[in-house]
Every structure is written in C-alpha cells, then in structure tokens.
C-alpha cells in the first residue's frame, strides 16, 4: 500500500513538473540571480509519437545534454544535441509518458511526451 502511494505521489509530481509553463532555477553558485526559463526554449513533435521524436531548439551556442526518463525516473536515453534540429528513434520504446530533459552548464529544460 505504501509503495502504491509513493508511486502515485511521484507520478503526480512528475506530471505537474512537466506541465508547468515555466521553471524557476535558483542561484547556481556562480553569482547568478534566480532566472525564469520560458516554456518555448525547445519543441518536441509529434506528441504523441510512434516512431520518431523530433526536437527543435530555438538557439544554441554549445552542445547540450539530452536525456529521456520514464515516469519512474529510469533514464531511457542519453545523448548530445549538436544542432538546432535532432531526432530520436522511439519505435522500440514501450507506450507511455516520458520526460525529455535538455541541459547545459547552468539551465535545465524539461518537457513531457507520450509514446503511442
């Protein structure tokens, strides 16, 4: 029973985080003040996806780390984004909800996508 409740709370938190229109990043230790990152930093399409997930960045000046997690927090995919448009083959992934996280040295952006 406790495990089910823990799973439900985790899923609700992950879903709420992925649905938030903005993410607040606090002081990172380099003297930066808190900054607000807009939801439009990158797009994913199609969503839901069956075979291929396309990721489009608005701008980048460096390689970015790309990670995809399932709703239980298990990392399913890890790679680097080196161009403004990239694709991931998701055809062999299980159907469900995934979180796509893009990170540089100071900022993390996360969005949700559904694999059909």
From TrEMBL:
Annotated ranges, domain Secretion system C-terminal sorting: 45-114
Signal peptide: 1-20
Key word Signal present: yes
Keywords linked to the UniProt accession: Signal
Pfam families assigned to the protein according to its UniProt record, in alphabetical order: Por_Secre_tail
InterPro entries: Secre_tail
Name of the protein: Putative secreted protein (Por secretion system target)
């Amino acid at each position: 029973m406790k495990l089910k409740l823990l799973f439900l709370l985790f899923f609700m938190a992950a879903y709420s985080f992925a649905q938030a229109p903005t993410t607040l990043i606090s002081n990172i230790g380099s003297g930066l003040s808190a900054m607000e990152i807009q939801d439009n930093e990158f797009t994913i399409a199609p969503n839901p996806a069956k075979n291929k997930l396309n990721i489009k960045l608005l701008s980048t000046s460096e390689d970015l780390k790309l990670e995809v997690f399932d709703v239980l927090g298990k990392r399913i995919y890890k790679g680097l984004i080196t161009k403004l448009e990239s694709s991931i083959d998701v055809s062999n992934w299980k159907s469900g909800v995934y979180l796509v996280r893009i990170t540089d040295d100071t900022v993390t952006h996360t969005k949700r996508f559904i694999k059909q």
